[in-house]
Amino acid sequence: MAREFEFEGFETKSIHAADPRSEAFGSLTVPLYMTSTYVFPDAETGGARFAGEEQGMIYSRIANPTVDVLEKAMAQLEGAEAGLAFGSGMGAISAVLIAMVKSGDHILCSDGLYGCTYGLLTMLKEKFGVEFDLVDMSDMERVRAMMRPQTKVVYVETPINPTLKVVDLQAVSEIAHAGGAQLVVDNTFMTPYLQQPLKHGADVVVHSATKYLGGHGDLIAGVAVGSKAFLDELRFSTLKDIGAVMAPMEAWLILRGLKTLSLRMERHCENAHKVYTYLANHPKVSKVYFPGAPDHPQQELIARQMRGSSGMIAFEVQTLEAGRTLMNSVRLAQLAVSLGEATTLIQHPASMTHAVVPADVRRDEMGIADGLVRLSVGLEHPDDIIADLEQALAKIPVQQPESAKVDTDPHTAA
After folding, report:
1. Most buried of 125, 140, 316, 325 (most Cβ within 10 A)?
2. What Pfam families does the record point to (predicted)?
3. Is domain 10-258 classified as CATH 3.40.640.10?
4. Model-level pTM?
5. What are the structural domain ranges in the chain?
6. CB contact at 8 A, 93 and 120
7. Measured CA distances, 110 to 82, 178, 221 (Å)
8. Three-class SS state of 108
């Protein structure tokens, strides 16, 4: 049955974007197509599909009906022309960047990146001669000065992992486009419910769907959204030939996760605000980084660009050893990398997710202190999350008396 009108509410779209009712048997949920290949009705049809003259399934490394529904749903939620699914978030990031650059090109990046993204950029530089730089994107003159004639991509995380600095996408997009570059934004921390970068000038948006989109810690997947022309090119080049393909089961699980995305993100945000208030007043916590802080210096930008804070908090304790004591003492929170699932997760970026980044770059350019702890606030009762942190922080030995300093300015991270 065809839709007679378009829905406006995100909550409605997240449930009905993946509408399978045109499929056989009238299944309420999207059918799971567990097949590697597809039978052509005749040789002429097969040839026409391979030549791009006729639409239709060919092989599941290129397209699959269940995955196709997810791609369309993500495009609708992000306000994009098209979507493309991958076997992991890094599969999506790698495919997009490889498609956009060649030897001798330059990528300008926000001064904080997921550790594996930094590792990919380092590999592209060392093996293929693609240069990259990190720049503080709170300083637009500095961003403009760092652009080169060879800059083909400006790559941004916002909020940045793990320091949670917020980048003005509209301002950066104007600089990128004026220099002939495309803006790619990792929207994993926000999801399309809380932020839609294409509306602020981004050309391509990438997600680790492993995180909030799936929401339950039971899959690995990635998604890119953008123009149909670019993603069609991507489908028949870096996706097909490198092969970071999403399995149909993962697509099916993400489609299920999307139905509760808005509800989950609201609860993640509510819980994170309460946990932030607790941490901001704890004497053993020296700094807290959280976009939802009521006195955050970028409030105007956050209100304009974001619908909420997400569930991510970063905070500093005095030493690396204090951080280890904290993480070894939690009982409810789980000591694990990743984020965005129902369970509260805690981890140490300097020795875990960002260990691949050289120590001087990590500290001086990215602002990741050795005592920084990243917390993915889950869906448990907030009082229980706070009680767990309370008993864990109590295990940290008392340092020399020092006035507690709560720093909500992400640009002053040591």
Report:
1. 316
2. Cys_Met_Meta_PP (PF01053)
3. yes
4. 0.92
5. 10-258, 261-397
6. yes
7. 25, 18, 23
8. strand
**Euclidean distance between CA atoms 85 and 378, whole angstroms:** 26
235 is known as an active-site residue: no
Of 341, 361, 339, 334, the closest CA to residue 350 belongs to: 361
**Residues 145-202: pLDDT tens digits?**
999 999 999 999 999 999 999 999 999 999 999 999 999 999 999 999 999 999 999 9
**Is residue 373 within 8 Å of residue 326, measured between CB atoms?**
yes
Residues 6+ apart with CB under 8 A from 127: none
Q: Do 261-397 and 10-258 fall under one CATH topology?
A: no
Pairing of strands 222-226, 82-86: antiparallel
Which pLDDT score is estimated for 312?
97
Give residue 400's pLDDT: 55
Of 114, 118, 155, 278, catalytic: 114
Cβ atoms 387, 395 nearer than 8 A: no
Phi-psi region of 410 (alpha: psi -120 to 50; beta: other; left: phi over 0): alpha
261-397 to CATH, choices 3.40.190.10, 3.30.360.10, 3.40.50.300, 3.90.1150.10: 3.90.1150.10
How far is Cα 10 from Cα 266, in angstroms, rounded to an integer? 13
pLDDT, tens only, 27-77: 888 899 999 999 999 999 999 999 989 999 999 999 999 999 999 999 999
* CA dist., res. 225 & res. 84, Å (int): 6
Residue 26 is classified by DSSP as G
- Structural contact between residues 374 and 323, judged by C-beta atoms closer than 8 angstroms: no
Active-site residue (options: 38, 61, 274, 409): 61
Query: Does the annotation mark 114 as catalytic?
Result: yes
Give the DSSP letter of residue 381: -
Query: Cα(340)–Cα(148) distance, rounded to whole angstroms?
Result: 36
The residue annotated as part of the active site, out of 105, 111, 168, 186, is 186
With a cut of 60, say whether residue 306 has pLDDT above it: yes
**Is 211 assigned a catalytic role?**
yes
Cα 399–chain centre separation: 36
Query: 276 catalytic, yes or no?
Result: no
